[in-house]
Amino acid sequence: MVEETNQNISRLVDGDMGCDETLDLLKKIQSDVTLKNKMSRYQAISQALKTDEFYQVRSDFSHKVFQEIQQEPAHFLPQLKPKQSQQVQDKQTKRKLYAVAASTLAAAVLVGQSLRDNPSANNYQTVTAMASSQQQLPAAFTPPEKPEQRNRQPLNAQFNDYLQAHNSSVYTNGEAHFQPYAKVTAYGQE
Amino acid sequence: MDNSGFLRDSNFFLVENFYHLILSTYTVETSVNDRTRNIELLDEELVSRVQQGDKSAYDILVIRYQHKIIQLVNRYVKDHSEAQDVAQEAFIKAYRALGSFRGDSAFYTWLYRIAINTAKNYLVSRSRRNSDYHIDVQDAEAVENAPQLQGMETPERELLSEEIVKTIQLAIENLPEEMRVAIMLREFEGMSYEEIAEAMDCPVGTVRSRIFRAREAIDSKLNPLLD
Questions:
Q1: Whose CB among A88, A178, B168, B221 lies 3.0–4.6 Å from A172's, allowing a Cys bridge?
Q2: How far, in Å, CA of A184 to CA of A91, rounded?
Q3: Which residues of chain B does A86 touch, with a Cβ-Cβ cutoff of 8 Å?
Q4: What is the pTM of this model?
């Protein structure tokens, strides 16, 4: 057990230990003077090999520092500065903004893809279906018109006229068994 | 005679070896970098604890860095005893200033700067106190290079230090081959355990054991001189 601990101290001196291992060992060393001396001796040997100078850290070195710190008045106690927490908050806000931007971008890409995948005829059918359903509503179910809607009426009528004028018959010159240009192209590919 | 197969095989062998070399170098570097990052994380955690009022966490930081800081201060203040006093002062100053430490740099880098400033200030104040040296110190940089202030070691202490170093060198010469190579690669070449394992073609655990045993053997030779 002692040998294992000493080997770990040797590893600690060489920086060969992970975070948790280091912390556990340092806690052990903190409460054991023998281990403190062992660490100090290994460090001194290591240094002597590199620099031809040998000196050992006093065994009470850290204890003296600790005593001094204990006597520190309360106003010297280190405190987390509010600016630091502000920085953390700023970072979090930035992260949220980035997340929202990324989500919006992803949504735009998905919508774009779905629009590209659906043939334009479907859109046309949807729009015409919606337009015709509006026209077929019985008068009883038509909501009372507001003055604003009354102003828009000519525009809707114009829109309907446009849609009717630009249906597939225009491109086929009204001949029977002719498909719109887009459909003919798709048929040719097959 | 058709050598193309052999050449192809040898080329493949070379490429494979090169690939392994790159891979092992990358693995060693990655593990060393990970460890360095882990150590920085440990420091951050300890500093955070101190900033929340845990004084024993600072004690751990002191134990962790005491030797490095004394070694650093010793470059300025040549007397070991004085160097330890100055290092203690540096640690106390660092504790007082820890509230303003924002973690922009690593804790050790920050501590290192405080230690250097403390050592320089100490030299300046000592030169002002001690008029025997007759040195007009304008700034700490000039004091750094003043040999009169650096060579403060007592002759007895110097003799003992020389004897210790000779004993260590003798102990290394008497070590078994594999232990000597392992500790020399570590101490003189600064290689990591993984690199030594690669070089000596043995597991990392064996390297750990060899280096530890080498240190123990040297330590046992030093006991009569130090106890």
A1: A178
A2: 56
A3: none
A4: 0.61
